[in-house]
């Protein structure tokens, strides 16, 4: 699991925009776990997806675009720029077990009530 220190170091390194929002390190952890579950492809996907919204609905917690960018930067297999990462367009719904140990997951259930598993082609 990513440490608070690792996350903060990347935030300090890449988040030059004063409007970048990072409410909690767990938001980066949530985004990282969602990205980790996706099938990686060789090049960046040309199709744009509302990735942050998919992550929020899956995890039941607000996640900023900046959190997703930091998570992608930290992930050794993710390349590209938000929202065009090198993930397959056949999205995988991550297992809920990936959220175990992330205390902020499922703390804003209004997000999770909008979760639609039908957007996913694959399920862990």
Features:
two-stranded parallel ribbon; globular; 6% strand; two-stranded antiparallel sheet; mainly alpha; 124 residues; 4 strands
Architecture blueprint of SSEs:
Elements: H1 4-14, H2 25-37, H3 51-59, H4 65-74, E1 80-81, E2 84-85, E3 92-93, H5 109-112, E4 122-123
Description:
The chain is mainly α. The chain is 38% helix and 6% strand. It has helices at residues 4-14, 25-37, 51-59, 65-74, 109-112; strands at residues 80-81, 84-85, 92-93, 122-123. The chain has a two-stranded antiparallel sheet.
The major pleated sheet works out as: 2 strands, antiparallel
Report, as a whole number of angstroms, the end-to-end distance.
19 Å
Number of helices: 5
List how many beta strands DSSP finds. Answer: 4
- SSE arrangement, N to C: HHHHEEEHE
Strand content: 5-15%
Structural class: mainly alpha
Q: Please tell me how large the radius of gyration is.
A: 13 Å
Number of domains: 1
List the uncertain runs: none
Give a quick rundown of the structure.
The protein has 124 residues and is mainly α. The chain has 5 helices and 4 strands, in the order H-H-H-H-E-E-E-H-E.
């Amino acid at each position: 699991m990513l440490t608070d220190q690792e996350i903060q170091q990347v935030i300090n390194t890449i988040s030059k925009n004063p409007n970048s929002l990072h409410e909690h390190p767990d938001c980066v952890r949530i985004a990282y776990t969602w990205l980790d579950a996706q099938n990686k492809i060789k090049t960046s996907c040309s199709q744009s997806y509302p990735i942050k919204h998919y992550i929020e609905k899956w995890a039941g917690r607000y996640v900023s675009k900046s959190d997703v960018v930091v998570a992608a930067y930290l992930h050794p297999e993710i390349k590209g720029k938000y929202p065009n990462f090198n993930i397959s367009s056949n999205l995988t719904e991550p297992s809920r077990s990936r959220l175990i140990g992330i205390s902020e997951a499922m703390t804003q259930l209004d997000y999770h009530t909008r979760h639609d598993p039908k957007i996913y082609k694959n399920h862990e």
